[in-house]
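dumping this here before i forget
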Amino acid sequence: MKVSELEGAQLDFWVARADPQSKGLRMEWRGDHWVGIGEIDGKDEVIIAGASPGFHAAKKVRMLYGRDLMAVYRPSSDWAQGGPLIEREEGVITRDDGGNRWYQAEMGIGSSRRLETGPAHLVAAMRAFVASRFGVEVE
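structure:
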């Protein structure tokens, strides 16, 4: 699939896979959400990515995984999660001058820097981040 077509849960999944601070994170599809289990910033975490709108993450994580450690991972729509990635990866986001609500973002450092577009700031930035790690297509 082209990175330029990723959105929502799929985009969040690929951001989680691309983020080098997610050391050892194993991402698996569990029917209505992606779960990542591994070490994030030095501590064991359960990360939920791409949960369906009615997904009650905290309750379900306790029931399925026996843990309270969790976060709903939505860097393509949550500035608290996507913002630090943009800063760390020296991201630059601009708005299309044609009057549309369309954005382009550059992310990555050095020769891995990539430009992608999207309908929102964070979507464009997270697409560029994924492209900087995996190229213009993902499996």
